Protein kinase domain-containing protein (Aphanomyces astaci), 340 residues
Amino acid sequence: MVMAISISVACVVLAAWIGFLLYRRRQQTVYEHHLENFERASNVSYAHMMDTTPAPPLNLSYLEVYRIDAQYITLTSILGSGGYADVYLGSFGGQDVAVKTMFQNHPTRRELAAFADEIQILAMLHSPFVVEFVGASWDDGAVEGLQCVMEYMDRGDLKEVLSMYEPALFPWTEKLHCIQSIAEGLAYLHAFPIIHRDLKSRNVLLDSAKGTKLTDFGGSREETTSTMTAGVGTYRWMAPEVLLSHRYTTAADVYSFGMLLTEFDTHDIPFVHLKAKDSGKPLPDVTIVGMLITNAVEISFSTAMPQWLAALGRRCVSRDPLHRPTTAEITDRLRANMQF
């Protein structure tokens, strides 16, 4: 009985500690510094102001070169929603485009500044493996209506595509082409070096003609010695060092890439197979985070996956960031094992 009570107390303490960790992480500022290459015309750092402060007039002069007149953009239907924005199918210049628009509920300074930073980052990226930026639009008197116009990818996101097939019905030859493109896109970012910080199937887009591309750079930042401590991303894809709020590098993206490989393997989110022993229900994020932090869960791949790829995946999810391959190594390994 004493042992049972001790175990129960330990579980309660662990759950409380994990809850505190998640709470603290949510309270941390995600956007510590703007990219050095994109310093604002004004020296005001909106990202550090209080979340609850109503959005003031925002200086978007540094985005003026990308500006599109809103009258030339037509929105037709909603494609999806994110943490602070909707994405619409639209048209511009006779072409289909995707238009990311902030929720119309008085966005905060931080949200506006973060969205403007995302646009600035996307505008500098030009790769066949990254969704192409078209332009930005806003009204001078209502900057909360800021929009990001991007190329449209007609197959939707990877999570959606994977959910349409049983794993056995989606051939690995096709999956490997997607995986190669994701790795190439990640290697392109890391060459800057920029950390994506939210790599998962929802942030990978597919197109019947243009292939596979990375998207959603709302959490992306240049790797520096001072900024890479705030956690961004979705817990199940996060590297242990990010969960623990330690300083991290591009190796955190490599870990997320390894978790993305589990999605290609199972066609489901990571750790969906973990169930509570008493109820049989899927484990909540807080429990899974605790298991990841304490190294109490093993990340595995099925025998249906090419074994060389499974071995690469296991290296990517190494607990020690120094034991993970670089994206350059990953792309080399993929090229060496694929026939196009």
